[in-house]
Design a protein that fits this description.
The chain is 47% helix and 16% strand. The protein has 264 residues and is α/β, with parallel strands linked by helices. The chain has one domain: Rossmann fold, CATH 3.40.50.720. Helix 1 links the parallel strand 1 and strand 2. The longest helix has 32 residues.
Length: 264
Amino acid sequence: MTSDPRSAPLVFITGASSGIGQALAARFARAGYRLALVARRTDELRAWADAQGLDARRCGIFGADVADIDSIVAAGQACIAQMGLPDVVVANAGISIGMDTGEREDVDVMARTFAVNNTGMAATFHPFVDGMRQRGSGRLVAVASVAAIRGLPGHGAYCASKAAVVAYAESLRGELRGSGVKVVTLVPGYVDTPLTRRNRYSMPFLMPVEAFADRAHAAIEAGAAWRVIPWQMGWVARLLRVLPIPLFDRLLAGRPRKHRQSER
């Protein structure tokens, strides 16, 4: 670990108060990074950082709601002012709520999902893009999902939002080609987090969040353009892509749906 904290590399992570975001924060801390962590629940985040022995020199905490563009942009700008330009930015914050298009309240759920998972991602990256381009280095990490591959019944908002993450990250990668800034798309399968524990359907190849963080960290450090984790879900994703529509529809018929907001 670097002796002078100010000279250590810096990672900026949204949605860091639990799940994948928190596991990635712990993994980057072990790798010697300084942490700039973002969440709405800053008290919980500070308690976690204190429990990890991360003082203010190594861990900055910023409160923001990624669904509010001005809020997350301000958090990014505060990070630059207080800690410097990050080496890695992980747009991890996301929500997953089931929906039924026939229910009016669920259309609002879809709008909120896109505000967090998509617009929030672009707003997370925004404060850092020009600085990274001028510096000639950096990694912008988009956290997608294998749910991006095909639409699942009852998951319209989440699947559509994650498909949009994949397309957005691909577009951004093309825009930054040759600049030295890498865009990394992480495609998790099922990871054991508070977000997945209430799912009422089978989750093949479910993996511990710490194991996911190890593999994600390796992919980010390598600057991989695309990485499905775990690798077994990569084969599932390939199969789903090529399944004929009638077979896909029969396979998914009767599959339990994700909890809607009113069922949570």
